[in-house]
Amino acid sequence: MASLAEAIQNLNAADLDSVVEDGRRRAGKTLAQVLLTVLLVLGAFAYTGGLSAERYRGAVTTILTLVGESLPPDFSRWSNWGRPLLETLAMSVAGTALGAVAGLALGALAARNTTPRWLHEPVRLLLNTARSIPGLVWGVLFVASVGFGPLPGVFALAGHSTGVLGKLYAEILEHVDPGPGNALRSQGVSPLGVLRFSLWPQIMPRIVDVTLYRWEHNLRAATTLGVVGAGGLGLEVVTAFHLFEYREALALILVMLALVTLINVAGAAIRGHLLHGA
Fold it and tell me: CA-to-CA distance for 196 and 180, rounded, in angstroms?
């Protein structure tokens, strides 16, 4: 504290004016950026009709009517949901696993600190392309290729997950601290030892986190693939809505909510076991 006070006292008037002026410039720049961001968001919202009061007329009444028609949830056909539920779970697990394996391989090639530019740039373009294609488009493609059922759903989830996880894995690899690895190499440790004792401990926690999060996402995404014929609970939900069976649709949504909750609990347990050995 004393050294700080002495430093402030040693500043002359010109230095103080420079510091104040620099602070004002930074504050003005930050304020301009905030205002520009707010204007962009409001412009986007207005373009979509979000600022039109007419669009909201009767919205609350319609929502309340739908909620009323959905209550109480109808679980009378629960015995028929076992197979679709298993299909949805299987699609999410298999699709995430395939996407993680492909994403890890491509992510290692896409990381700027592991491969030369002539290699990582094309791989990054490939990953960008994979994740820019919506999951439903992947679903249509694979339904046309391998037919209806959960198998095209697996490939659809894997295709999109490869693009997303590959990018995330590449960023994780790019943020690795090279210091521990360099120290091990200087002591004659093999590349496998560097991977085991330096690289893997740094990347493993984040890889586990993003992979488990993607699994949770794919479980929800698997339901939407029912729209294009990929099976699972999504097909049951779509069918219920088409038949105006809102009570059954609500029951199916509650089942999905319970399944996602179980996946969250399982993911937390897996994360704890892998990261803390407990």
Answer: 11
Confidence at 63, pLDDT banded by 50, 70, 90: confident
What is the DSSP secondary structure assignment for residue 24, as one 8-state letter?
H
Q: Which of 261, 270, 134 is nearest to 207 (CA)?
A: 270
Sole residue written with tokens 């050995």: 277
Q: Which two tokens stand for residue 53?
A: 């009061």
Cα 94 to its chain centre, rounded Å, is 17
pLDDT at 176: 75
Q: How far apart are CA 159 and CA 100, in angstroms?
A: 10
pLDDT 10s digits, 107-134: 888 877 767 778 878 888 888 988 888 8
Tell me the C-alpha distance between 214 and 101, whole Å.
13
CA-angle at 199, arms to 216 and 159, nearest 5°: 35
For residue 40, pLDDT beyond 90: yes
HEC string of 84-112 equals HHHHHHHHHHHHHHHHHHHHHHHHHHHCC
Model-level pTM greater than 0.85? no
SS3 of 118-176: HHHHHHHHHHHHHHHCCHHHHHHHHHHHHCCCHHHHHHHHHHHHHHHHHHHHHHHHHCC
pLDDT tens sequence across 202-222: 778 788 888 888 988 888 888
Of 95 and 1, the one with more pLDDT: 95
Cβ contact 233:88 at 8 Å? yes
Whole-number Å distance between alpha carbons of 150 and 167: 26
Residue 14: partners with Cβ closer than 8 Å, 6 or more residues away: none
Q: What is the rounded radius of gyration, in angstroms, for the C-alpha atoms of the chain?
A: 26
| The one-letter amino acid at 156 | A
